[in-house]
Specification:
Helix content is about 50%, strand content about 20%. The protein is an alpha+beta fold. The chain has 6 domains: about 70 residues, 2-Layer Sandwich (Alpha-Beta Plaits); about 90 residues, no CATH class; about 90 residues, Distorted Sandwich (Calcium-transporting ATPase, cytoplasmic transduction domain A); about 120 residues; about 150 residues, HAD superfamily/HAD-like (Rossmann fold); about 120 residues, Calcium-transporting ATPase, cytoplasmic domain N (3-Layer(aba) Sandwich). The strands form 5 sheets. The protein has a 7-stranded mixed beta sheet with strand order 14-26-25-24-15-22-23, sandwiched between helices. Helix 7 runs parallel beside helix 24 and helix 12 packs parallel to helix 24.
């Protein structure tokens, strides 16, 4: 069994990693994957109520107040009282307190409802004492800052020791009460080497040594770092939850001849749905009646509204902009595109890249090593120099920077932000490992039909060599092809219809498999087919301009060729630009297709591809891909057909167009909702940016912490530098991580 659980009141990424490790060590658990930004953990194994109790006991020992409940549950009411919201401007972060006969939870709950204008669905959990208002933590922080500023002024002006000491202590207690409280709770449970305990030891030690400003400064920056962390995680989470919010709660569904407003979750395949102007589409479907324009930007990133009419397919999550239309549902709401997207994006945030796993392993040894260095520094330095105060102060600076929380959070937050940014552009990564792999790709290989081309045939060229005019040639050919189901025949008849050319049913007709059709029309014998068919009928071939690409249909009337019609698959609007941009990024571009080699070469030449191979079977595609991998390095394959599934799975990164077959979508590491090759460029840009940010975070954090450690070992300790190395660095890393959310440049390119 596999189940997703919500983690209530988890505030520390490092502690979350400890919980994940501990749960993974349980005998009943096969695998546990933490999704810290979403505050969720996915567990597979022999799941039971007894196991959940055991997991909660473990989690509570690691971080006090943490509770793990099935996704969607609210926890145990007799233990806690929560407020859930997602409004950026609201300062309430979720609340927890013990209930007794004097508890005023109902009044507090009403007060929260009246004064907190929160409209989202996210839960942010922190502890607060009984009766504390939702905004109290921020008020206490501001009050603490004012007292801290007053203490500094008194200390450096009038030098009244009792006054500034009292102000320092008051400021420390106001800003650090939650740290002290958590320390007491954790120590009582035997959990001493966490960030709260280390922060308490460092700050109390600084007070003991008379470094009052440093002690309060450490707590201040620690609290500011927490605020930045909450804001950054909330912003990244919003990019993910915005997708989920596109799901529609209610819809007008036809029941007994009337449209009834009902729960969208009850929509079934075949139901008729009415969508008014301004409403979001509740389920995937086909337009039954009405014409309108829909905004698809939230689903696939396309900024230009799409016109729809009866027979057109539409995706859930899009907004109807103009007139009321009715749809016939082709999928239940739970199985519609927007639900699949929301689930895919959330699942992706739980899949960890290799660099994240490295940081997790590193964090397990980093804190014990730094703590050991702090103890050795205090002991050995004191014995050698007989100046214990100096070396104890140095050891305290080590404790301040001994927690790797900033590093543990900033790297996955960068990938989390990258996944959110990609989803805004209609790119669905199936995990952080997919982003990491794409950033290392040296060659991008495309399929042709449906990937670089539109996948639909159309008439692209007409040449005349007899007495007939162009319109008459089309009328004769369209009439003969009207009884054929071949894609080429359909494209010719559709072209005739688009030009309002009337076609008629021939008196007699037949089809020569793989070569063309023959018919009698108006008493004349007509042949419409390939050059091979004309040769079989001994019809002489006149000189005609050679078609660059596509299927050529020659039209012969009573033994004489009157002209030829070229039907080909048109190249997508962004294919050429996408190939050019990939090549500018130093990426080798290639095309592997089962289409005829001459057609493949023509498209490849038009787009400027580095390598083209046509006429390939699926296994031959995989062989060619491996050849390119050996020569160029890591490869990405982009396709959409059932026959592309093996090569998608065999590539280092598989990318599938949303319009493709289900098997291709399943095998891919990334899905492009827009079906435009330009999306591959955006995906690579996001991957590069995300990987670069994660490396920047690691290098900067380790360099700063190492520099402060070296200064301390050399006998030049500085608590303010230690504060910067911990909380200051944390803020910078978190701010740097959320840069991955920025897609403005890519949106500008799209326009």
């Amino acid at each position: 069994m596999e189940k997703t659980y919500e983690i209530k009141n988890l505030g520390c990424a490092h502690c979350g990693g400890k919980i994940e490790d501990a749960v993974n060590r349980l005998e009943e658990v096969e695998r546990a994957v933490l999704n810290f930004p979403m505050r969720k953990i996915r567990i597979s194994g022999e799941l039971s109520d007894e196991l959940l109790e055991k997991i909660n006991e473990i989690a509570g020992k690691i971080e006090s107040g943490v509770e793990i409940v099935p996704s969607g549950a609210k926890g145990h009411e007799h233990h806690k009282h929560e407020h859930s919201h997602g409004h950026d401007d609201c300062h309430c972060h979720g609340h927890e307190h013990d209930h007794d006969e004097h508890c005023h939870c109902r009044e507090h709950e009403r007060s929260h409802d009246e004064h907190c204008h929160c409209h989202g669905q996210e839960s942010h959990s922190h502890e607060h004492s009984r009766g504390e208002s939702p905004k109290m933590p921020l008020v206490m922080l501001i009050a603490g800052v004012i007292l801290f500023a007053g203490a500094l002024i008194v200390q450096h002006t009038v030098h009244l020791f009792p006054v500034y000491l009292g102000l320092y202590i008051a400021a420390y207690l106001l800003m650090g009460y939650n740290v002290l409280l958590a320390t007491v709770k954790n120590v009582s449970k035997g959990n001493i080497f966490d960030e709260n305990f280390l922060m308490t030891i460092a700050t109390v030690g600084a007070f003991t040594l008379g470094e009052y400003a440093e002690a309060v400064g450490v707590v201040l920056f620690f609290r500011i770092g927490e605020l930045f962390e909450d804001l950054a995680v909330s912003r990244s989470r919003k990019a993910i939850t915005d997708i989920a919010s596109l799901r529609v709660d209610e819809a007008d569904v036809l029941r007994n001849g009337e449209f009834v407003r009902m729960d969208a979750g009850k929509i079934a395949i075949g139901d008729i749905i009415r969508v008014k102007a301004g409403e979001r589409i509740a389920a995937d479907g086909v337009v039954e009646s009405g014409e309108s324009r829909i905004d698809t930007s939230t689903v696939n990133g396309e900024p230009v509204p799409v016109r729809i009419q009866p027979g057109d397919s539409v995706m859930s999550g899009c907004i109807n902009l103009a007139e009321t239309v009715t749809l016939r549902a082709t999928a239940a709401a739970a199985d519609s595109m927007i639900s699949k997207i929301a689930q895919a994006v959330e699942d992706a945030t739980a899949e960890k890249p290799q660099i994240d796993r490295f940081i997790t392993r590193f964090s397990r040894v980093y804190t014990p090593i730094v703590i050991a260095a702090a103890v050795l520094t205090a002991v050995i330095g004191s014995l050698i120099t007989h100046d214990p105060a100096k070396w104890l102060y140095s050891a305290l600076t080590f404790l301040v920077i001994s927690c790797p929380c900033a590093l543990v959070l900033s790297v996955p937050l960068a990938y989390f932000s990258g996944i959110g940014a990609a989803s805004r552009l209609g790119i669905l990564f199936k995990g952080g490992n997919s982003i990491e792999a794409l950033a290392k790709v040296k060659a991008v290989i495309f399929d042709k039909t449906g990937t670089l081309t539109n996948g639909s045939f159309s008439v692209t060229d007409i040449a005349i060599c007899g007495d007939m005019g162009e319109e008459e040639l089309l009328r004769v050919c369209g009439s003969c092809e009207s009884l054929s189901s071949h894609p080429v025949a359909k494209s010719i008849t559709e072209y005739c219809s688009s030009r309002n050319i009337a076609i008629s049913e021939p008196e007699r007709s037949g089809e020569a498999a793989g070569r063309g059709v023959y018919a009698v029309l108006g008493g004349r014998e007509i042949l419409c087919g390939s050059e091979k068919m004309m040769a079989e009928k001994n019809i002489p071939m006149p000189k005609l301009p050679q078609a660059e690409t596509g299927s050529v249909v020659f039209v012969a009337v009573d033994g004489m060729i009157q002209g030829r019609i070229v039907v080909s698959d048109s190249v997508k609007a962004t294919s050429g630009e996408a190939v050019a941009k990939l090549k500018a990024m130093g990426i080798h571009t290639a095309m592997l297709t089962g289409d005829k080699p001459e057609n493949a070469e023509a498209v490849g030449k038009m787009l400027g591809l580095d390598c083209v191979r046509g006429g390939l079977m699926p296994d031959e595609k995989l062989t060619e891909l491996n050849n390119i991998r050996r020569e160029k390095g890591s490869v990405m394959f982009v396709g959409d057909g059932i026959n592309d599934a093996p090569v998608l799975a065999g590539a280092d990164v598989g990318g599938a167009m949303q319009t493709g077959a289900d098997l291709a979508l399943e095998a891919a590491d990334a899905v492009f909702m827009s079906s435009e090759p330009e999306a591959v460029v955006f995906a690579r840009k996001i991957a590069d940016k995300t990987l670069r940010i994660s490396y920047e975070n690691i290098i900067f954090a380790l360099a700063v912490k190492a520099a402060v450690l070296v200064l301390g070992l050399l006998g030049h300790p500085n608590m303010w530098l230690a504060v910067f190395a911990d909380s200051g660095t944390a803020m910078l890393l978190i701010l740097n991580s959320v840069r991955a959310l920025n897609t403005k440049g890519m949106k500008a390119i799209r326009r």
